[in-house]
Amino acid sequence: MLESVLSYPHPVLGNGDDVAASVDEIQPGVECIIYDESIALTINGLEAHHEQIDELIKSGDATWLIRINCPRTYYRESFTTREQAFSQTFDGPDLEGKVYIEISLVAVKRIEGYAPAGMHSDYDGANFDINSGELIAIVPTYSFLAEKDFDALKAPVASLIRIEEGEEDIGPFKCTYETQLIIVTLPKAGWDEYAAIRDRVPSVLHTSIVLPVLVEALTLLRDDSAPGVTWADRLDEIVTQMDLDIEKPLLAAQAILSNPLGRAFVEVNKELDKRAG
Amino acid sequence: MSTIEILPEKTLRDMKKLLDNASGLQVYQEGASYQFLDEKELLSTTIEVVETAPELEVHGSVGNDLNDTDNALKIYSYLGRLNRTQASDPRLWATLTHTTFWDYCLKRWPNSLKEEDNKSRNYILEHWFETPGAGLAALRRNAISRLWWGAHLTVAPWEDTSEFDIFQDSDRTIYTSILLSQQQIFFDVLERSYGSSPKLRICLLDALKKYLPEVSNKDNLSKAVSKKLRLVLKGRHLEALPVKDLRHILHDMVEAEAEALLKAS
Q1: Among A78, A88, A259, B50, which is disulfide-ready with B239 (CB 3.0 to 4.6 Å)?
Q2: Quick check: A128 contacting B, CB < 8 Å?
């Protein structure tokens, strides 16, 4: 879920402490099942938990607006419902990469003298005229990754980074973040060495190559500078699923790689022990 | 019929690297074909097209002479209704700009490139590849992709849903013409998040169709309306309203901005 904090000309339920309700936050259950050819979305628990506002839905003065937005495929459709449950199936090719589900409660008729019970004392007993389309309540934005074969909690490094041989003979390794996967290019001499040890000491390579690349990628994500490509969507999903603090990219990268330094120590010790033995 | 083949990502990456030096940039100023593609491996797709690609024409450097609407319809007819995943693949569009429609791209997006100038590099990336990190704009500026998307999102919207019956017109391309009539309108519709909503997009183009003839500076009207609409949408989720109500609101908004421009001039 993403946080949403804005200032509106009238009290909006779910926007900070604009309006008190019987729950702190409207949290519908959102479930998404991704099949090969279609994506099924189900939302349950569409309820304001505020007697007066729930009554506006029943009377037809307000409706839930569910907006599905997929920037990668330029898909944006909105659906309205006054029911507590909503389901919709989408064509698989319509959605790819990050998909956002924005839920809000909006007036569909002009509501005069709107003064919801429990509104913040700053409003000082005022009442408001609400136009059609204006917000009554907001819900934190949900998102999911429309990728059939990707599991954020089992994401291998290969789902983010590809290591390739470059054209230069020697020099530092280089990185490209504008591509669908992050491309790490090793110089020819480095590539040969890499090819010889990548299966023997993978954790050492995680520490020396993947860790710094991932820190840089997380920094781009944190600064909203990541391009709209596959690795960025996937890394964002991994961060969300693992509940990582993106403000600390170095720690987050180590968590994603499951303590690469510790694993590298063990790996190097084993190799040294073999030689000693 | 034949199927389109596309360049792999690795080849495209190598092609972008060539933009780092002057000779790589100069290729985009002249030349009967893009010269670095000999014997490059191509990937198959399932996109079927007729054997002969359409001839895209450019008659001049401004306004209708750019022939964007006609060319958009030719591209849309040639490629057909791609699904959204196919149409968001940068490899498809970068392949077409560097092969089938190379001549057209040079004519439509002429450039006076300076050596190793970052501005020139970005110009080539935008119109022949995709704009890095540009979100919604990434493929909307590619010379061929913009034509396909421009047509796909605006041709006869009433044929997709009965909600749009009120817009029915004998001219199936009425909204495509409005969208592609000014670069500014294209930007204000397709590169803004509201432009990906069919309801908002068509209602906005419908209102512009009515009020554009009333103002001399059409770019300014488009800019003013876009600014106003973005402001309104922060607190008002207009997509929840029926199309006829939304159309009315957009018409009022565009009319008010057109009047304000006339008063100011």
Answers
A1: A78
A2: no
In order of A41, A62, A218, A240, B170, the CA distances from A34 in angstroms are 9, 31, 26, 18, 40
Report residue A82 as tokens. Answer: 């006054």
> Average pLDDT, stretch B229-246?
94
Spell out the domain ranges in chain A: 29-146, 152-276
Which of B85, B87, B197 is closest, CB to CB, to A76?
Answer: B197
Q: Which residue's structure tokens are 């014997």?
A: B39
CATH level 3 topology of A29-146: Immunoglobulin-like (2.60.40)
Q: In the prediction, which pLDDT does A2 show?
A: 44
* Whole-number pLDDT of residue B188: 95
The ipTM estimated for the assembled molecules is 0.86
What is chain A's percent helix, strand, coil content, to nearest 5? 35, 30, 40
The Cα B47–Cα B54 span in angstroms is 16
Residue of A nearest to B136 (CA): A71
Q: Look at B13 and A63 and tell me if their CB atoms are within 8 Å.
A: no
CA distance A194 to B248: 65
Distances (CA, A) of A32 to A87, A124, A222: 10, 42, 26
Determine how β-strand A135-138 pairs with β-strand A97-107: antiparallel
Residues in chain B within 8 Å Cβ distance of A80: 240
Letter string b/e over residues B26-57, b meaning 16 or more CB atoms within 10 A of that residue's CB = ebbeeeeebeeeeeeeeeebebebeeebbebe
Question: Which residue type occupies A244?
Answer: L
Per residue in A37-60, pLDDT (tens digit) is 899 999 999 999 999 999 999 999
